Amino acid sequence: MNKFKFNWRKPLIYSLFYLTNREVYNWIKEIKRLEKLSKNEIEEYQKDKLKKLLLHAWQNVPYYKDVLEQSKVVENGIINLNNFDKISYLTKEIIRREGKNIYSKDYKSRKTYANTSGGSTGEPLQLIQDKHYNNINYIVNKIYFQSFNGKDLGELEIDLWASMRDMQRNYGHYKEIFINFLYNRIILNSFKMSEDDMRRYVDIINKKKPRSMWVFAESIDAFCKFIKKNNLKITHHPKFILSTATTLYPEIRALAEEVFGCPVLNQYGSREVGAMTVECKYKNSHSFFWSHYIEVVNSEIVVTLFTNYSMPLIRYKIGDRATSAESFLCQCGHVTAPLKDMDGKVVTQFKKENGDLISSYYFIRLLFFQSWIKQYKLIQRDYNLIEFKIVLNGKSDEIAMRKFEDEVRYTMGENCKVRWDFVGEIEPTPSGKYIYTVCEIK
Ligand SMILES: [Zn+2]
Fold this sequence. Notes:
seven-stranded mixed beta sheet, four-stranded antiparallel beta sheet, 13 helices, 35% helix, globular
């Protein structure tokens, strides 16, 4: 009975944070205070954060000095938030064009590191980020949104997730093994799932009884379809399942809720700005207002990130769409101004002739660090042919292309070829959705 077992991991993880990363330790406490704030207090809190960020950007970032003066957000060194909506949007195009002009002059002293975005519109991007960003957006927010929905730090989670260890040769993974052990996390590789794998996954979930699960929408979809088709049963109901990275369609959610007998909740974010929102059990999305200021303008999500002073992202058009709702006190006890009708990345599973399912998101991840690609789309035409449509950003990178082909052969089979198709543009669907990957095998 897991329930009565002492969760020794929680005090251990806290102690490790206390000793090695005090900021995370302090912020976990700080969020307990922040989540109780009223609507007005949240507004005041965000105004204060915005002012500090804008002042920093004006003083230290060449690109923003001009932008903030032109929009009259800064006049004579004074911030005027009334003009905030006059600030021109930041786009991937501008980031690429401006390069170091968007870096803060003091970025070297901020323990920055490079991150590269998968981009919501299939446009890879090079970014630099503060250690503070990583602490808040990746560690603290994640701990928070799991506990928010009822899974405490150290309780078992099973992830139907990207196991790079299982996909890549010579992948150095000792740190990953340690972290997963510490956090009590079992990773079931969703990037490649054979029928045997999926049967094994059902057994593991029923036997280990996870408190929560993390999944990619298209992986849980394929997994649930397999379970139903083969009359298998999930006998353990986790407290909740979080779906992330790709779009959770209503039909995927309904199917997974039926198979797992628990709420399936959308968690939204991106590599540029980290985790931004999570749904509560009432299916309202809650934003992390201490790290992001979110606007919805003409159905486009626009984000200002509070946690990255090295390279401030102010009014950044993330490339995803949503409608927004009025702020209110949700039944779950937290104030929210939910994003609704979210529409983001659309990906699918690729198929092998032997029935194995390969997540095309695996290939998308391989493209994260490829600055020569402006936009892309992958189409599986046949078991042995993947077409790669690319809008180039400058010249093509032959070495990267050969490496990608190699990865495709390794994953999809020796005979699988890549057909490169350099195009001028990749059109979104009429609703503004970008389809990243398509599988034409029925
Ligand atoms: Zn709620």
